[in-house]
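Lecture 7 notes. Example A: sequence first, then its structure tokens.
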Amino acid sequence: HGISGAASSRAVNGEAKGYCRMSAEQPEGVKKDWCTKCQLVRPARAGHCRLCGRCVRRLDHHCVWINSCVGEQNHQAFILALSFFMLTSVYGITLTLHTICRGRTPFVALFYCPGAYSDYSSALSFTCVWYCAIVTAGMGYILLIQLLNISYNVTEREARLALRDNTGRRLLGGLVIDTGQYNRGVLCNWGHFLSLGSSPPQRSAEDIV
């Protein structure tokens, strides 16, 4: 009884965080969705994260920068954080370049700014701008891939599996992998993404009875 109670407690805590902790025996028809690590049947699009040690609903990927998985419950917040980072970073770079290299557009000033090293303060600021520009370019690429994946209703995990199993189509020069399984058109796909986490949790048969 003690083991059963502990398992039930973990299940409740897992669902509160958006993780799939449904207990179920392994029938023959659900071997594909059976997680041998968590000993449960995963819902559609859920995946097991070996770093977190649990199954996550609609798993996209594990982000080392936030030390957490990006899934159904926090994917919207992840996109919002990336967007705010891009806006503030571009604003900071533009403001600094306008201060150091007056009369030049930010893009031109980034590559040609004769007075950037005239004094220590300007040199340090210009160097920091270049570091910020490199990081911003990388984050911009990540945000672009995320937005394309949302438009095609595919997760990073599903894209990797499709490439491994050779079941997906490379589109837009390979930037996105369309599995075709959940793609319902751009508008419907974005509507689905914006409604993530808003649906009430499904009740088990025991709760209904």
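Example B, a different protein, same format:
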Amino acid sequence: DVRGETFTIVGVTPPGFTGVDLEVVDVWLPIETARYLFADSDTWRSHTGNWWLKTVARVPEGTSLAAAEAEAKRLHVNVHRDQIDQGRYFPVDRIHVTLASVIAARGPGASSESSVARWLLGVSLVVLLIACANVANLFLARGTRRRREVAVRLALGVSRGRL
């Protein structure tokens, strides 16, 4: 049940699957279900600025990039022929198809999220190493400072337990 509408479950993704983004996804719904979930559900069809809309398709093994791109362009033209003819939709030459792993961070080029994460990991490791070196230096300085005191106490016969 999503916003009062009942849908049939047609599949379950494996644990950890996030799609094309690295954010956690609670549910995947076909784009056609928008008419049931949103008041102005058909405005996305005529609006050309749908930057949020990403299409994911499973491509059969052995399909070339050129064939997948040609099929995507053919489908795009068939679905949006009226809007393309009126100049109200993305032109066909702006369609870009990338054959890659579903998760962007594992695709052909690293995503900005994974680049930032790697950079932060590197900086964190450097800070941790500096902190460890500082603590080791403090222990060394304390031991050097107390060296004479410990030697005198041992000479006077203090047991190691009391020292």
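Note on Example B: Residues 112-145 form the longest helix (34 residues). The mean pLDDT is 77.
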